[in-house]
Amino acid sequence: MKLTFGTAFALTIVAAVTVIALAAPASKAAPIQAGDVCHRCARVITDQSLAAEGIAASDGAVRKFRTVACMLAYLTESGEKLDILVTDLASGRLTQARWASFVRTTVDRRTGAEDYVAFGEQGAARQFARAQDASPMSWTAMRDAERRDSLATDLRDLGLVP
Questions:
Q1: How far is it, in rounded angstroms, from Cα 98 to Cα 77?
Q2: Who contacts 68 (Cβ-Cβ below 8 Å, separation ≥6)?
Q3: DSSP secondary-structure letter at 66?
Q4: Which residue of 19, 68, 105, 134 has the smallest Cβ count within 10 Å?
Q5: Could you tell me if 146 and 138 are in contact, meaning their C-beta atoms sit under 8 angstroms apart?
Q6: Domain residue ranges of the chain, discontinuous segments joined by +
Q7: More confidently predicted of 108 and 24
């Protein structure tokens, strides 16, 4: 079957629209506001720049999380399938987690607490990471690192490893 120019052009447009639709944040995303409550830990979200949200695949319900690490813990505990959006530190807007870059950093100098900040653009993540003497990570690498850390903590808490 030979494609005409018009048919090939139409197929190209359909493919482009599909890619844009898949890359765009979910339409049911709700802005994260200071004062919202974390779905997992029930603590108040005080810093929107660290927050994340997930939109449930089953019913479209929005789950807001205080931090990326809190959201990852929820995903591990619940197994729920969510469309994950994270706050881009540079712009303050929600962006798809699967396309973001993450940097682990100290988020509270008073307590020394660490967590992840997200960036929609890799260049911004690399620049921030250099200043923190850290390395940017993809969604998959960050999620896997957090799972390993969680497992190691669990094994230590159970007394199975020193």
A1: 20
A2: 50, 52, 86, 102, 115, 116, 117, 118, 142
A3: S
A4: 19
A5: no
A6: 27-157
A7: 108
Return all residues near 88 (Cβ < 8 A) that are at least 6 apart. Answer: 94, 95, 100, 118, 119, 120, 121
Mean pLDDT of 125-149: 90
C-alpha span between 159 and 49 (Å, rounded)? 36
| Long-range Cβ pairs for the range 87-91 (8 Å, 24+) | 87/32, 87/48, 87/49, 87/50, 87/51, 87/52, 87/118, 88/118, 88/119, 88/120, 88/121, 89/49, 89/117, 89/118, 89/119, 89/124, 89/128, 90/119, 90/120, 90/121, 90/124, 91/120
Token reading at 91 = 């712009």
Residue keyed to tokens 């957090």: 146
For the stretch 33-74, pLDDT in tens is 989 999 999 999 999 999 999 999 899 999 999 999 999 999
CA–CA distance, 11 with 9 (Å, rounded to integer): 5
CA distance 2 to 137: 44
Closest by alpha carbon to 68, among 105, 36, 30? 105
